[in-house]
Amino acid sequence: MAARRRFIAILTFLAGLYFLLEFVLPPTVPGRTSRGIYLSHDPTVVRLRTGAGDFVDVAVRPGVELSMMVRDPTGKLQAKVQRTREVSVGETLTARTRTFVFGGLRNGLVVDAEGAVAALRPGEQLYLDGSEETPADLAALPIGSKVRVEVRSARVAEVQWGSVTLLQNRERATIQLGPHVAVLREKRKGTPDEIEPYEARVGDTLAIGHTTFLRDQRDTAAQFNTVLGTLALGMGLLSLAMVNGRKLKRSGEDRWVALAFFAAVAVGVCAGVYKYYDPNTTERAFSDTIVFRLLGPVGSTIFSLLAFYLASAAYRAFRIRSAEAALMMATALIVMLGQTPFGMYLTGWLGEQLKALWLPNVAGWILRVPNSAVVRGLIFGTMLGGIGTALRYWLNLEKGSAMGGGD
């Protein structure tokens, strides 16, 4: 019993950690975050040292991409694009310095489609876009093809951090960038997006500050969340297997239902495994048949039945017996008509001066303002309930059946 409690406590702790990193922790430290209107920026310059000992200075601007080789969940090495603030001295990177359309060779020099010379610095190599190999003869490159200039497997020798100039309280302020400084572009709705400084446009509202270490581990926490989902799926299958196993031991009509359950699980496992087989094989054909010709029609049938059920439930709910029901009916009617061209047909005659009374605009206001306020309140209450439940598990205060207590 104690082992079960510890196991559930660990699972809820990991789930709570993901919740904390994803929704609670801010992306930057509140006391060290500067906000203002974007004016300009000085780019960060990354100095790379190639295997031959050449130094290449790469200014981070549009068209520049820094990546490093990492292992994906399957164990394969793949290139992962790095944010500028994630680059540190000593790392081995591949830098794409620019991309252009190949225009041919002129006196042994590479030119672009506009005839400008695309001089290659020591350490830079020309690659055909979509290919990982360097052509042996540049003359073999087809004119008009897209090419990229890269510095591969180079070690970071130095990082000269740039800065961003903001307008704060009608004064210009220069914010220095650094290895742990994130640039966020705020939006009217939703959470801000982290961007590179060159992606900002004059007039954008930016928040620049030192990152919170734990918030940067959201990807790791998301992997924990995936593991938790997998464990929950396994525990659910184990529980169903135990319940249906007991039904098989007893005689009665439930025995056939339990037998159908085990047969369905076996077929589903085979279909999932055979999904990774090569096409034009018997195993892959079996998986495609189960997924596309069995599960697809079954899912469509269930959703079609749900549509009739929803229509029936809406009819019962929209019967006007009180002021609240009348308000809900009117709101639902406005929103539904506002999503169709018929709503514009009904109110378009009001003209531009009464544009705010057009049904599509009224429906949009209802969805943006009152509906958003209600949804945010529900989400806030759900979050508080989740935090309270998680604390009860972590502090071993939960005495439900899952923790070995009473029902």
Overview of the molecule:
The chain is an alpha+beta fold and 407 residues long. Among the domains are: 26-42 and 161-213, no CATH class; 45-159, no CATH class; 250-317. The protein is built from eight helices and 14 strands. Strands 2, 3, 4, 5, 6, 7, 8 and 9 form an eight-stranded antiparallel sheet that branches. A six-stranded antiparallel sheet has the order 11-10-1-14-12-13, with no helix packed on it. Helix 1 (2-24) runs antiparallel to helix 8 (370-394) and helix 5 (323-338) packs across helix 7 (359-368). The chain is extended and about 85 Å long.
Summarize the structure.
The chain is 42% helix and 25% strand.
- Low-pLDDT parts are none
Number of strands: 14
Number of helices: 8
The main sheet comes to:
8 strands, antiparallel
Radius of gyration, whole Å? 30 Å
Order of H and E elements: HEEEEEEEEEEEEEEHHHHHHH
Straight-line distance between termini: 15 Å
Question: What characteristic shape results from the CA principal axes?
Answer: extended
Structural class: alpha+beta
Helix content: 40-55%
The overall pLDDT average reads 82
Strand share of the residues?
Answer: 15-25%
